[in-house]
Amino acid sequence: MGSAYAQTPFRDTAGLTLNGIEWCEENYQLYYFMGNDFFEHHQHSIESRICGNLYNDDLWLYSESDRYQKLIEQSRMYYSLEIQESASEADKGIIDTKPVNIKESPQEITQQQIELEESVVEESNEKEIEIKISEEKQMNDSEGGGCLIATATYDSEMASQVQMLREIRDAQLMNTESGISFMTGFNQFYYSFSPHIADMERNNPIFKEIVKIGITPLLSTLSVMSYAESDSEVIGYGIGVILMNIGMYFVVPITIIFKIKNKQTS
Q1: Is the pTM of this model over 0.70?
Q2: Same structural domain for residues 116 and 168?
Q3: Does residue 211 register a pLDDT over 60?
Q4: More exposed terminus of the chain, fewer Cβ within 10 Å: N or C?
Q5: How far apart (Å, rounded) are the C-alpha atoms in residues 244 and 218?
C-alpha cells in the first residue's frame, strides 16, 4: 500500500524516523497535559496520531538499548493502521481524527503487535524501579522539549533558536540535579499557558512578531548557559541570566519611564 503522506524529517514512507520518535518524546508531557486536545493542537497531523498510539502502547515504557528501534518498528504498524482507517473513513464519509484503536487492527497486524509484545523481556522488581526512574527522567526531558512558543515564533522545530534551547536543556540543565529540579518546576508553569500563546501566534502574524521581538533578548542571554557544566555553574549562570532579564525587561523600562516623567514635570 502506498503512502498517503509526503516524507518529512520526522517520518518516511513507512513510519516515524529517529527524529520522529524524539519528537514524540519531546511532546509527551504536552500530551499528558492536553489529552485529546493534543491532536487538535497539532492540526491532527499523522505524526501526532502515531505518537498518540505509541504513548498508549506498553512498549513506550521499554527502556533497553534497542528502545528506539522497537518504537520505530511499532510506528510503522500504526502508520499502516492510520492509512487504512483514513481510507475506510473516506469510503464511509466520516472523519475520526483521533489515533486508531489497536483492537480494531486487522488480524495480521494484531499478530505483529502480539509478537512484538512477547519479545519484551519480563523485568524483575529491581528493574521495574529502574524503568520508573528512566521514565521520570524521560518525562523531565520531554517537558522542555516542545519549546512551543519558540517553535511557533520561528515557524519550525528545526529553527536554530529552537535547537539552541533544546541543546541547553539536554546538555546542561538535564545533566545536573539543580537543572532537573528547575525544569520540573518551570514546566509546570510553562505548559499552563504556552499552548495558548503558540496558538495565538499561529492565528495572528502581528502578535507573532511582537512575541519574536520580546523573546529575542531572552534567547541571547540564555546562550550563556551553554558554558555551564556543573551544578554550581548551572546555579551561577542561571542566577546571572535571571538578573540580566530582570534588568532588561523590568529595570530598564522602569528607569526610562521614570526619566521621561521627570523631564515632563521639570
Answers
A1: no
A2: no
A3: yes
A4: C
A5: 9
